[in-house]
Amino acid sequence: MNPVKISYFTDALCVWAYVSQIRMDELKTNFKDHVEIECRYFHVFGNVASKMDAAWKQRGGLTAYRQHVRETVEKFGHVRLHERTWQTDVPTSSMPAHLWLCAIRTLEIGSVCAPGSSDRAAWAFRDAFFRQGRDISQADILLGIVESIGLPSAQIADAIATGAAHAALADDLELARAQSIAASPTLLFNEGRQRLAGNVGYRIIEANIRELLDAPPGQLSWC
User: Running along the chain, 223 residues long, what does each successive block of 10 average in pLDDT?
Assistant: First the structure.
């Protein structure tokens, strides 16, 4: 049985991606070799100041957005929000974190980093921002995080300096554009024919995957 391949699009600063990580971990545990999850990055918060001005200026700006994030986090018992998050040391962009994550993913593909390194880094970045209140648009902060989880900072820096990380991120952005990805998180599977976007419950994700696993070869899913 071929595994279900999932492209998982997120923005590192997206609260729903932070909340939803537990669902992705559950998928990996319950389906093991039956799913392949490929993490991809696109920018909902590519320019934070512009995002806040366009989407939240008329609703109270950054202060209102921070309250929205706090109310979202408080609905779930498995995540926490630091008092500084979206209040002080506000990131300018999610793109630096995405670039570093693409660098780590490139090294993981090349067997320089151990399997799962890019997933660990993605969670470490989100945890640093949401739970610890750190500005993950700053290179020194990102460097400290990757070193704290035992990843090779010199090789990561080289992947960025040589453009390899930029090329990988460009691929992510092009795929997101081609597939009209507009929400974080978005799961894309069944060769692009199915997608689940936003705050989707685990059972819904599971049902879609089981339908694809159980369907006869060549038959379209009923989901």
Answer: 90 97 94 92 97 95 97 95 96 98 98 96 98 98 98 98 98 96 93 88 92 68 50
Rounded Cα distance, 49 and 45, in Å? 9
Note if the pTM is more than 0.90: yes
Cis peptide bond prior to 185, omega within 30° of 0: yes
Structure tokens given for 33: 């070799």
Q: Which class is domain 4-214?
A: alpha beta
Distance CA 167, CA 159 (A): 10
Which residues are registered as beta bridge partners of 35?
4
Break the chain into its structural domains and give their ranges: 4-214
Q: Residue length, the chain? A: 223
Place of tokens 């990580």: 21
Name the residue with tokens 């408080």: 74
